[in-house]
Amino acid sequence: MSLALQLKDYRLTTAEILYRMPDHPGLLQSFIWQELDLAPEFPVLRRFLAFWRRELDGPVHSVRVAAAAPLRHSAFRHPALLRLH
């Protein structure tokens, strides 16, 4: 994961995409997508879904999204310098 993106409030985002099988439209298939993205707009996920609709045959049925909490500056700690005698 890119620390620079996390400092810009990007967070690990997971999406479960349910889509219909092209040859069997009565069946749903699941695809898991995971990437760093910016909540709540999710521009990276939106670009991926636009690619999906444009390039792939299986129409999207639904998308369920979960995003991790943003990284806080207090989560970073400088390593302590220890001297052993």
How much helix is in the residues?
10-25%
Report strand order across the widest sheet: 2-1-3
Distance between the termini: 38 Å
Which secondary-structure class do the elements indicate? alpha+beta
Rg over CA atoms: 19 Å
Share of β-strand residues: 35-45%
Number of separate structural domains: 1
Uncertain runs are: none
Secondary structure tally: strands: 3
Could you state the order of secondary-structure elements as H and E? HEEHE
Helix tally?
2
Biggest sheet record: 3 strands, antiparallel
Shape: elongated
Q: Average pLDDT across residues?
A: 85
Verbal overview:
The protein has two helices and three strands. By secondary structure, the chain is α+β, with helices and mostly antiparallel strands. It has one domain. The protein has a three-stranded antiparallel sheet with strand order 2-1-3. 6% of the residues are buried.
